[in-house]
Write a structure and sequence with these properties.
Elements: E1 12-17, E2 20-32, H1 42-51, E3 57-68, E4 71-75, H2 90-96, E5 106-108, H3 114-117, E6 134-138, H4 139-145, H5 148-153, H6 156-170, E7 177-180
Parallel strand pairs: 4-5, 5-6, 6-7
Antiparallel strand pairs: 1-2, 2-3, 3-4
């Protein structure tokens, strides 16, 4: 059993709420282009970023540990070794926090985008990064990302980045996946 943390370290931030300790684990950050934004004057947005010495639209990526009643869950798994080199730091920051991924008993995915789910397995070796965890997610996630008809409608980037990556990440957890429905 993992002991709840009692001190702060870089890349990790703890918050105690009653008997529950929630720990934010930094996965790093991802830089993206502004064209993904809608209803925004792109040139004005670029100028605002340049004036603030920011190189791009930067998104922090985080996972959250929940320590409660002797159990430890992680909400989302970060980018793993799939996206930019500035991300994929969950495993490193878990180690810094003194958490062995084998001690995590539940992985809860909010959704299967790669910045939330690509840290389930090492994509170069196929190794499970949370070898003893049950994978929990909403039933619509698997229904959508394993829908071949939906995948056939996606552009090549989306097929690789979302559909194929998501399928590769969750497949090794198939025998220990629990789906829930709205309201559960």
């Amino acid at each position: 059993m993992i002991q709840p943390p009692i001190q702060q370290i870089p890349g990790v931030y703890h918050r105690k709420i009653g008997d529950i300790v929630v720990t934010a684990i930094s996965d790093g950050f991802l830089d993206g282009n502004l064209e993904a934004m809608r209803n925004v004057d792109i040139d004005k947005a670029k100028q605002i970023l340049a004036d603030a010495f920011r190189p791009a639209r930067r998104t922090s990526v985080n996972s959250f540990l929940i320590h409660s009643k002797g159990r430890t869950a992680i909400v989302d798994t970060g980018s793993g070794n799939y996206l930019q080199q500035t991300a994929g730091k969950v495993q490193q920051n878990l180690a810094a926090a003194g958490v062995n991924p084998a001690d995590i008993d539940t992985v809860l995915l909010t959704h299967m985008h790669p910045d939330h789910s690509a840290g389930l397995t090492d994509m170069t070796t196929g190794k499970l990064l949370f070898p003893n965890a049950e994978l929990v997610m909403h039933e619509n996630e698997l229904a959508h990302w394993f829908d071949d008809a939906a995948m056939s409608q996606a552009d090549e980037r989306s097929k690789k980045l979302f559909f194929e990556a998501g399928r590769e990440q969750v497949a090794p957890y198939k025998a220990r996946t629990r789906l829930f429905k709205q309201g559960e």
